[in-house]
Amino acid sequence: MIIGVIGGGQLARMLAMAGHPWAHRFVFLDPAPDACAGPLGELITAPYDCERALLQLAEQTDVVTFDFENVPARSLEFLAGRVPVYPGARALGVAQDRLHEKALFHELGMATADFVAVAGAAALPRAVAELGLPAVLKTRTQGYDGKGQWLLRGPEDVAAAGRALGDQLALLEKLVPFDREVSLIAVRGRDGAVACYPLSENTHRDGMLHTTVCRPGDALQAVAEAQTHRLLDALDYVGVLAVEFFQVGTELLANEFAPRVHNSGHWTIEGAETSQFENHLRAILGLPLGSTRARGAHAMLNLIGAMPDAARVLAISGAHLHDYGKEPRPGRKVGHITIACPEQGLALPLELLAL
Ligand SMILES: Nc1ncnc2c1ncn2[C@@H]1O[C@H](COP(=O)(O)OP(=O)(O)O)[C@@H](O)[C@H]1O
Ligand SMILES: [Mg+2]
């Protein structure tokens, strides 16, 4: 099979690595000529909405997927009828707008942080008066890795955020004093079969994922799975999807979902019987899903900005190093490390955090 991927970043790269053992070939569409998935297939260098490039992608491939959620929905509509595209345009459209995403969560009985819609900076003071502070202001569209967000604690923050927001539509959310952030990676096949990985616990730095620890047997697993199952069915979803939750006491508040393979599921490459990448390919190709069982507890550390010395990492027993082959740049995800935790309940090895 020839698989098209809109986006040629590290997620596309790891999808291709999962597909190569089955002799699948990959065509990536990315505006960057040095997109890091490029060496693993053919790279079409063009904007995501270039019709000529999308036509080429449709003609060259058997099925198309995407590796990030800001692909223009119009590009998927253009591909529809020319080549099967999974996940579909509806899931992408909902995930691209935080208001629609939260509305769907509520429709499905999933609790979220309290929020109000904000129609640009002019509407912000009223929203703040209604919801109270502290709060997080988020643009409805185009946000990722903490971008397009402002933490509001006092009047000065409100004024500064208003200036930055301008006339963009936004949401104002109550700041949640969460105990943990967790994510559920799930996969749904073309036949509606669903499988979920064990919940992962995530920490962020500067709005970006920093560490993930997965200890199978989480007390909230069943609740998270039931909610995510409803979401997958409601979207008639095909492929891997990740739901991010805040845990407050014993309650889960749904924060957002990503209609794609997810950074907090990278541990599945070494730590699960079937990786999230292989399961995404199985789903979009209409193949049986693979077991999502974890081989014990695993942890992942994101490498941001620059790669560490490989010899130092590999000297740590059980550590696996992933280098995306990207140019180092501050704030850029350039790789990650995974490691099996020898005992249940063990935190990420301290040597890794010190890298
Ligand atoms: N309402 C909130 N309360 C507390 N922390 C939040 C809230 N919204 C976002 N955050 C923090 O910011 C991170 C990024 O926000 P998120 O909504 O996931 O946006 P994105 O990942 O698309 O940038 C979250 O993982 C969480 O750590
Ligand atoms: Mg997030």
Describe this structure in words.
The chain has 355 residues and is an alpha+beta fold. The protein has 3 domains: 2-85, Rossmann fold; 114-174, Dna Ligase, domain 1 (2-Layer Sandwich); 180-353, ATP-grasp fold, B domain (D-amino Acid Aminotransferase, Chain A, domain 1, 2-Layer Sandwich). It contains 12 helices and 17 strands. It has helices spanning 10-19, 51-60, 73-79, 89-95, 98-107, 124-131, 155-165, 221-234, 268-271, 276-284, 310-314, 350-353, and strands at 2-6, 25-30, 42-45, 63-66, 115-119, 135-139, 149-152, 169-174, 180-188, 194-196, 200-205, 208-214, 239-248, 251-258, 298-304, 319-323, 333-340. The strands form 3 sheets. Strands 9, 10, 11, 12, 13, 14, 15, 16 and 17 form a 9-stranded antiparallel sheet that branches. A 4-stranded parallel sheet has the order 3-2-1-4, sandwiched between helices. It has a 4-stranded antiparallel sheet with strand order 5-8-6-7, covered by helices on one side. The two termini are 40 Å apart. The mean pLDDT is 95. The structure holds adenosine-5'-diphosphate and magnesium ion (MG).
Structure, briefly:
The protein is an alpha+beta fold. The protein has helices spanning 10-19, 51-60, 73-79, 89-95, 98-107, 124-131, 155-165, 221-234, 268-271, 276-284, 310-314, 350-353; strands at 2-6, 25-30, 42-45, 63-66, 115-119, 135-139, 149-152, 169-174, 180-188, 194-196, 200-205, 208-214, 239-248, 251-258, 298-304, 319-323, 333-340. The longest helix is centred in the middle third of the chain and has 14 residues, at 221-234.
